[in-house]
Amino acid sequence: SNFDTDTVVSETAERGVTLNLKANTFTREHYDFMGWAATPNGAVAYEDKQEIENGFAVEKNATVNLYAVWEPKTYTYTIEYYKQKITDTVEDVDFELIEFVSKQDKYNITVVLTDAEKNAKIPDAHYSFDATLSKVSGTIDGDNTLVLKVYYKLDDHTLTFDTMGGSRIAPVKVRHGLTVAKPRDPVNGGYWFDGWYTDKTY
User: Fold this and answer.
1) Mean pLDDT in order along the chain per 10 residues (202 residues)
2) Pairing of the two strands 74-84 and 44-46
3) This prediction's pTM
């Protein structure tokens, strides 16, 4: 991209005589000077200090304007990946860093993580991407401090108890990897409780 500035430097060239462009003295924070364009917002037509044989092919006493072309500098940003810990209860929420990846892009570019990047470090099938906690977009700053964060949460399961006509026992929500305490024995008048089974037809 080009940078419009009120600062102008001029030089006089004799028609038909080889011209050496002066070295660029302009600077722009977070940008590199690439050369000179012949039109505003144009592509580079002349390099810095370029030698131009026979000068510019223009009429006598004509004015030729050249425009600085600027390219954003490249900076580093980081993607951090976190997984949820197996904690004591589903109410506890704690994460640990599992990996980070450094990448680069141009200054002032807004980075948005792709689905592939979001799911790149999922530990296993019992984790899923947490859109609420994750920060998946940001604008490249000029000091390499942009950090995007991806969080993977553990699955939660609901364990239900079919007492087969006995007294009701409320369902229990449990995070994957945790154990469930044995509930109280259900009561069904005239029957002894024999235990719990996962096969209803047992």
Assistant:
1) 54 71 91 94 93 68 85 97 84 89 97 98 95 97 95 93 93 88 91 87 70
2) unpaired
3) 0.75
